[in-house]
Amino acid sequence: MMERSRQAQGLLLICLLICLRLVSAFHRPPPGRVIQTAFEKPRSHPQQVHVSVAGRDRMRVSWITGSLHALSLVEYGKAPGQYEASATGEGTSYLYFFYRSGKVHHVKIGPLEPGTVYYYRCGGIDDEFSFKTPPATLPVELAIVGDLGQTEWTASTLAHIGKSSYDMLLLPGDLSYADSQQPLWDSFGRFVQPYASRRPWMVTAGNHEIEAIPILYPDPFVSYNSRWRMPYEESGSTSNLYYSFDTAGGAVHVVMLGSYADFNSSSPQYEWLAADLAKVDRRVTPWLFVLLHAPWYNTNAAHQGEGESMRRAMESLLYGARVDAVFAGHVHAYERFTRIYDNKADPCGPAYVTIGDGGNREGLALEFDQNHRSASLSLLREASFGHGELRVANATHARWTWHRNDDAYATVRDEVWLTSLGASGGCGVGRAARIARASAKLEL
Ligand SMILES: [Fe+2]
Q: What are the Purple acid phosphatase N-terminal domain coordinates in residue numbering (predicted)?
């Protein structure tokens, strides 16, 4: 009798375990089908509309027209159809082998009020768009996702982001996965327009943006730089591949670095970074974030060591400035590390996050190395598509969440509260900033 009861209990336990397994099982998604987005309006109509911040109270509106004669004009106002202001800008076109791009327009508008919805139209054509400017103070919410692509998974990721209350999207490289097929850049621009025309999209370049071919087409980043103009001039940089900007009235400073631009100590990027970090006064800017493409810390088997040269060149600058967090892409998975400096846990170093899981067509990077030398520093790693949300609540605390795409749902799989190194007294931020300022003066 006792024996039968024990067998029944065992069976019950096995059933329970199977049921729990079924409930919590998550099948890793395969690569999604590429979605190509067509354009059926006349050639003079704006398409691929997106906006980006361009200085303290300005925005840059960018779009493309099939017609090379369309006007680079933006009319805007705070009520639908009532455009009390306008601005003109520039239009360019580029050639990639036999492909001639449409006219790429960039128009800077402002001054604009913070936290305000503006309605606008491009080139005098009655297709109305609207965007909301970022807030003047904290809190601010940043959606962060890399390696986006234009697949069914990308659509899922963007739909999830669209349901959040984000103020701005940050993209650490690998946008369209056009890979020299230029019409895919156009398709990507149309694919993201419903989101990128409504909130500022701030991007930096990945390897898929390079598109140079030795001898035949030696210039890199031609399509990316033409289409995705970022505020590099506004931040004292000489290259669209690295720049910085403030948001939430200067409470947050974001630095976008170029993994595929020179980064050694004698390079323009290094010198610009040293000067840019030295200008940040952490008493008024408690939060400092950096985005780049190839991660400096990574325990995934994919792209091992590819960010190492850049880490060796620049990590001390970021550490000296007490950067709060570094977000990277490139590896198609999610991974969050503790605060690190020089391969060791350090409470005054940045937290490192890989968020290259936007939904690209290449699929996921499934294999993590359990014995990697950084494995003990890695707090959570998973190969699933998804996106991150960074809600900077106040001067001291920010909530980071990673949202995994569970089919139609965005499931919070990781959550952590970050404490600002600028607001906490423990890491000698004032002293670190003075040292950074002094060394920038020496180097420039
Ligand atoms: Fe990449």
A: 46-133
